[in-house]
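Figure 6 in text form: structure in, sequence out.
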């Protein structure tokens, strides 16, 4: 067997894209609740346009999403039927602390996640919990300025302390921040940042980066102190940048792009800022706002494993920003790869290459926390969805992961595909960009019955898990 007997097969979802119940159970307004569907979405995600509360005549997909808040028992039962070993899920911060700065948590919110974890236990599903996944109380944005304000470190410490204590014995696998490197490009969505006209955005962004990195290290410290069994990882939006050609300038451009993303995990895994980013800070007249015991906290509280999302590789070309926007990151064209419906390259071998790059750099266990194909599934006259294209995509990526383990010898803890059930796309706000093995009857405008039904890929993934990755349905 290539995969260990305790390999964690499963899927990944996030509160901001599936949970809904935005005004129920004492939950407060979150930044994801003010991301509209339509033309303004990307500018608001990036912090270029400010939206602090919902306005009329705009539809906000995250507010109700696929209503996992009320359907979680039904959904987890379906995942249990597939044989899931793990379910990656995230916490809505504003469900625990509605404003983010309260002294006491919201018991209704804590009980909701306890009920979710107990439901997972019924089916032998191990929760993998992302503490924050593009989801923070809006009050922390409007009153504190998001993560550019150091006070958020203390609010986050309070959050993680509550979570680690409440769910001790129920959850042992944790991730501190989702796709931490995306906060530089998706400033509002990932870090709650908005900017004044005369603001030095570089300074504000990297102040926020520092605060998030320190908060992540504190989470590792607190989590290990509360429960020595806790395994706490980081989470990177991965996908190697290839050079557009073998011209040294293109090779250098790719190296620089990759370093901009590895900077985050360099700190989380090695405990200090790498020299290359320090020089970049110098060139931009930026000074990292170290204070108190930041350096010691970073140095002594390293993550236990590295998780990452992988959808696509990207291409870097010297003196070009790229015209192709892949998962909120720019890329030059790649004439050697096919493209999926929303423009990302399909590159299974790139997963293996990326995994080797990450392991060579850090020598830490790996976890493939997201990987999947977004496609516009259309039910036939009988309501069936024959998503062979999704099966093919996942099969080839799992095969590449298998080669990384079997041939390259990489230690891989698990694989959670994105996403086992259709949910709201974070980049576009669409439901028509579907990833799931389970179809949800909901359209881009929020209309539908929310009825769940199995796609052809449901049974396929069920067999993959049952065979521990040996039966890929060739």
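Output sequence:
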């Amino acid at each position: 067997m290539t995969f260990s007997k305790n390999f964690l097969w499963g899927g990944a979802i996030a509160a901001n894209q599936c949970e809904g119940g935005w005004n129920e159970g004492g939950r407060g307004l979150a930044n994801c609740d003010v991301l509209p569907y339509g033309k303004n979405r990307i500018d608001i995600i990036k912090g270029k346009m400010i939206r602090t509360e919902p306005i009329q005549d705009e539809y906000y997909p995250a507010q109700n999403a696929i209503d996992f808040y009320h359907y979680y028992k039904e959904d987890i039962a379906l995942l249990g039927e597939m044989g899931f070993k793990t379910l990656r899920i995230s916490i809505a911060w504003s469900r625990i602390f509605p404003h983010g700065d309260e002294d006491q948590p919201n018991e209704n919110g804590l009980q909701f996640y306890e009920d979710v974890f107990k439901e997972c236990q019924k089916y032998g599903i191990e929760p993998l919990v992302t503490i924050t996944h593009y989801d923070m109380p809006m009050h922390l944005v409007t009153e504190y300025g998001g993560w550019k304000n150091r006070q958020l470190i203390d609010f986050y410490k309070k959050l993680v302390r509550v979570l680690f204590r409440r769910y001790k014995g129920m959850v042992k696998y944790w991730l501190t921040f989702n796709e931490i490197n995306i906060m530089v490009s998706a400033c509002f969505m990932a870090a709650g940042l908005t900017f004044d006209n005369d603001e030095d955005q570089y300074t504000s962004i990297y102040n926020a980066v520092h605060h998030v990195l320190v908060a992540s290290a504190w989470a590792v410290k607190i989590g290990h102190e509360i429960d020595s069994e806790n395994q706490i990882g980081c989470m990177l939006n991965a996908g190697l940048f290839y050079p557009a050609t073998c011209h040294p300038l293109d090779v250098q451009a790719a190296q620089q792009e990759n370093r901009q993303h590895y900077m985050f995990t360099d700190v989380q895994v090695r405990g200090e800022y790498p020299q290359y980013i320090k020089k970049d800070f110098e060139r931009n007249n930026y000074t990292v706002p170290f204070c108190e015991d930041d350096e010691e906290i970073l140095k002594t509280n390293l993550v236990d494993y590295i998780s990452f999302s992988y959808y696509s590789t990207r291409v870097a070309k010297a003196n070009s920003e790229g015209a192709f926007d892949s998962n909120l990151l720019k890329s030059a064209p790649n004439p050697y790869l096919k493209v999926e419906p929303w423009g990302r390259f399909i590159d299974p071998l790139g997963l293996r290459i990326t995994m080797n790059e990450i392991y060579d750099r850090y020598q830490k266990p790996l976890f493939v926390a997201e990987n999947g194909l977004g496609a516009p599934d259309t039910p036939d006259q009988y309501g069936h969805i024959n998503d062979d294209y999704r099966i093919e995509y996942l099969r080839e990526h799992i095969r590449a992961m298998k080669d990384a383990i079997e041939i390259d010898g990489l230690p891989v803890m698990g694989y959670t595909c994105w996403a086992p059930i259709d949910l709201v796309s974070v980049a576009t706000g669409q439901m028509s960009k579907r990833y799931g093995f389970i179809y949800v009857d909901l359209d881009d405008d929020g209309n539908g019955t929310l009825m769940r039904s199995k796609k052809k890929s449901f049974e396929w993934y069920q067999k993959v898990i049952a065979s521990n990755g040996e039966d890929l349905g060739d």
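Caption detail: The chain has a mean pLDDT of 96.
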